[in-house]
From TrEMBL:
<feature type="domain" description="ABC1 atypical kinase-like">
    <location>
        <begin position="194"/>
        <end position="317"/>
    </location>
</feature>
<feature type="compositionally biased region" description="Gly residues">
    <location>
        <begin position="323"/>
        <end position="332"/>
    </location>
</feature>
<dbReference type="InterPro" id="IPR050154">
    <property type="entry name" value="UbiB_kinase"/>
</dbReference>
<protein>
    <submittedName>
        <fullName>AarF/UbiB family protein</fullName>
    </submittedName>
</protein>
<keyword id="KW-0812">Transmembrane</keyword>
<dbReference type="InterPro" id="IPR004147">
    <property type="entry name" value="ABC1_dom"/>
</dbReference>
<keyword id="KW-1133">Transmembrane helix</keyword>
<feature type="compositionally biased region" description="Low complexity">
    <location>
        <begin position="333"/>
        <end position="348"/>
    </location>
</feature>
<comment type="similarity">
    <text>Belongs to the protein kinase superfamily. ADCK protein kinase family.</text>
</comment>
<dbReference type="InterPro" id="IPR011009">
    <property type="entry name" value="Kinase-like_dom_sf"/>
</dbReference>
<feature type="transmembrane region" description="Helical">
    <location>
        <begin position="6"/>
        <end position="25"/>
    </location>
</feature>
<dbReference type="Pfam" id="PF03109">
    <property type="entry name" value="ABC1"/>
</dbReference>
<feature type="transmembrane region" description="Helical">
    <location>
        <begin position="37"/>
        <end position="59"/>
    </location>
</feature>
<feature type="region of interest" description="Disordered">
    <location>
        <begin position="322"/>
        <end position="356"/>
    </location>
</feature>
<keyword id="KW-0472">Membrane</keyword>
<feature type="transmembrane region" description="Helical">
    <location>
        <begin position="624"/>
        <end position="643"/>
    </location>
</feature>
<feature type="domain" description="ABC1 atypical kinase-like">
    <location>
        <begin position="365"/>
        <end position="464"/>
    </location>
</feature>
Length: 687
């Protein structure tokens, strides 16, 4: 056989395979991957001879291949449907047994193997650290239950040492947990609060290329001067003092080179560990470790992108109606570094009721802020934990008023107000730093939260219930009377004089969960921020009355809303929205009355007006129709195959038998057409 003939045969085979693939996919009505469809058609082509040979033998085709016209047409149709049926069966079986994405491709497989090896090394390292500090049994869910304080203190210390040795991600995880007094016992909160996110600074030879690449030119051209020795260094970034060409003092926060890869790997391990502990341990389920890990991972990813932090600072400052007014720092000794390496630097406006200006926010230099570099105007100060004890209550009140105003009035709030993100400025005010995590609320949610807080201040269970059901999506079936009683008991337990607020947020979440309420993410961020704030306020001023001060703020806010100017503005806004409707109301009432008087009043109801509902109903009808046709064809095929007599097409095969075989093939094709979308939808629901 010459080369031309071989090429013709190969081309014919390829065209046949492509035709089989196209026909199988069109008949199934589901879009499969090109590779999967081609492999199924190729397998059908390879199986054609062993599958079709018994069929031809069963029909006893004469040696010369001659058949009556009707017989030839029937056998040809049967063979074609059998050929197409093979890839259809293979595709449906593959969809049911090996859904797309369950088996990685070669490139994904190679990456997966490399990732598993890298993760295994890190797992081994973390396991050694845990075992070294006596945490191995707790990772397996077999640790002893400690009820005595000395045992809890020892376990908390072991956990702190293990997290500290684990590196940047685990240190930050411990810092976040140290503020969650609503989740952890006091021994753990106190011990984890000692975690320090301080590491040796990266050499200037590694930092300068990052600055040059991100700022688009040599450092000497962008800044008039830059200190090569950092003011402070943390695991994600480090901060250098600098001066702009105009003479303004700033600080430059630079992300460590290569830190994103290490953090990404550790975050993946944190999520996997959280899922394992939640499924295997009772304490993991009670804490909801999976959700905590996802929220922590999202916050860390935002913290790695300094553009997010710059935008957040600008948003908070703009929402508060403040303007930047940078001040000059007093040297490196006055710098304060947050957990991400952010020096307390920035011009800010003020908020709160403090005599020295309340709380101030950093102000970035937008033209010099990139993904890995953040430039801010500089302020000087010291750690807030070094504040004099007599200033603690004032600072705590200022911070609480600032955050409540951000949440309830401005709609843009700092979502992580832990002590590492605060500093005491030289003028006695607070500096709120590190805006890598910020929450946003729309006007409707803010209004509902305001009503919720004011109702809590009045201890009105009915108003609290109504406001809460405006904050969260209202379920279709909810026992509002029981919810009102639960909230009334909650307020009696936590809003009385001298009551401790440690368990307040935990109990509120329990009520929300018990009644099947789903808290939107933006509202959940509010509760998390308030829970974190509670721990910070206690650090600033032990014994601080969070509930009393929050109720006082609610009273002041209510007084502000009751001022003549505020009432006048509210009434004006409501009238502006109501006036167009009032102007159209008489005409509409007159039209309705006229139509009713003349008997023309009718009610127009459109069923299935939504296009999605029509598409769903049409698809459902198609599936039912195909199922009925497939079942009918199958029943008719069985009846015809069992019927004797009839015109003989060939030896031993009547016309009834030939039609029955074809109907059987048609029934199989229709059934596969119904099954393929079912398996595809099932996979989507699982995803």
């Amino acid at each position: 056989m010459d080369v031309l003939a071989q090429l013709f045969i190969a081309l014919s085979a390829l065209l046949t395979i492509i035709l089989l693939a196209v026909m199988a996919q069109r008949l199934l009505g589901v879009r499969f991957g090109a590779l999967r469809t081609f492999v199924a058609a190729l397998a059908a082509f390879a199986l054609a001879q062993p599958v079709l040979t018994p069929i031809l033998a069963a029909f006893k085709v004469p040696a010369d291949g001659r058949l009556p016209d009707a017989g030839a047409l029937g056998v040809l149709l049967l063979l074609v449907m059998a050929m197409v049926l093979i890839p259809m069966v293979l595709l449906v079986l593959a969809e049911a047994l090996v859904p797309p994405g369950s088996v990685p491709g070669p490139v994904e497989l190679l990456r997966s193997v490399r990732g598993r090896l890298s993760r295994a090394r890190r797992y081994s390292q973390i396991t050694r650290i845990a075992v070294k500090h006596g945490l191995g049994p707790y990772l397996r869910g077999r640790g002893e239950r400690l009820d005595d304080r000395p045992g809890k203190v020892r376990l908390a210390r072991s956990l702190r040492l293990a997290l500290d040795e684990g590196g940047v991600t685990f240190v930050k995880l411990g810092q976040v947990l140290s503020t969650r007094r609503d989740l952890l016992p006091p021994e753990f909160v106190e011990e984890l609060g000692r975690l320090q996110d301080k590491v040796a600074p990266a050499p200037w030879t590694q930092i300068e290329p990052v600055l040059t690449e991100e700022l688009g030119g040599p450092v000497e051209e962008v800044f008039a001067a830059v200190e090569r020795t950092p003011l402070a260094a943390a695991s994600i970034g480090q901060v250098h003092a600098a001066r702009l060409p105009g003479g303004e003092d700033v600080v430059v926060k630079v992300r460590r080179p290569g830190i994103e890869a290490a953090v990404g790997k550790d975050l993946d391990i944190v999520r996997r560990l959280a899922a394992t502990l939640e499924s295997r341990t009772r304490w993991g389920r009670s804490l909801g470790l999976r959700d905590l890990a996802e929220g922590f991972a999202a916050a860390i990813r935002e913290e790695l992108d300094f553009r997010v932090e710059a935008a957040n600072m600008a948003a908070v400052t703009t929402a508060a109606g403040t303007t930047g007014a940078g001040t000059t720092g007093a040297g490196a000794t006055g710098a304060r570094t947050t957990s991400a390496g952010t020096t307390a630097a920035g011009a800010a406006g003020s908020a709160g009721d403090g005599p020295a200006g309340g709380v101030r926010y950093p102000a970035p230099v937008p033209v010099l802020c990139t993904e890995r570099v953040l430039v801010m105007r500089r302020l000087s100060g010291r750690p807030v934990t070094e504040a004099p004890p007599e200033d603690g209550p004032r600072l705590a009140r200022d911070l609480l008023a600032c955050l409540l105003r951000q949440i309830l009035v401005d709609g843009v709030f700092h979502a992580d107000p832990h002590p590492g993100n605060l500093m005491l400025l030289d003028d006695g005010t607070l500096g709120l730093l590190d805006f890598g995590s910020v929450g946003r609320l729309d006007a409707a949610v803010r209004s509902a939260l305001q009503r919720f807080l004011l109702a809590m201040n009045r201890q009105d269970p009915l108003a609290v219930t109504d406001a809460l059901l405006e904050v969260v999506p209202r379920p279709e079936d909810i026992d509002e009377a029981a919810l009102e009683r639960a909230l009334g008991q909650f307020m009696a337990r936590h809003l009385g004089p001298g009551m401790d607020s440690v368990q307040m947020f935990t109990d509120l979440f329990r009520i929300v969960t018990a009644y099947g309420l789903s808290i939107p993410p933006e509202v959940a961020a509010v509760f998390r921020a308030l829970a974190t704030l509670e721990g910070t306020l206690v650090r600033l001023s032990p014994g601080f009355d969070l509930i009393g001060e929050a109720r006082a703020f609610a009273g002041r806010h209510l007084a502000e809303r009751a001022e003549p100017a505020a009432i006048r503005e509210t009434v004006t806004q409501e009238l502006a929205a109501l006036l167009p409707m009032l102007r159209r109301l008489p005409r509409r009432v007159e039209r309705i009355a006229s139509a009713a008087e003349h008997g023309r009043l009718a009610l127009n109801v459109r069923l299935l007006a939504d296009e999605r509902d029509r598409r769903y109903l049409t698809g459902l009808l198609h599936q039912v129709l195909l199922t009925a046709l497939g079942a009918t064809a199958g029943v008719m095929a069985v009846l015809l195959l069992g019927t004797g007599g009839g015109p003989q097409i060939m030896t031993g095969v009547s016309l009834f038998h030939l039609i029955g075989y074809n109907l059987l093939m048609i029934s199989a094709i229709l059934v596969l057409r119904v099954l393929a979308p079912i398996f595809r939808r099932h996979r989507k629901f699982e995803d």
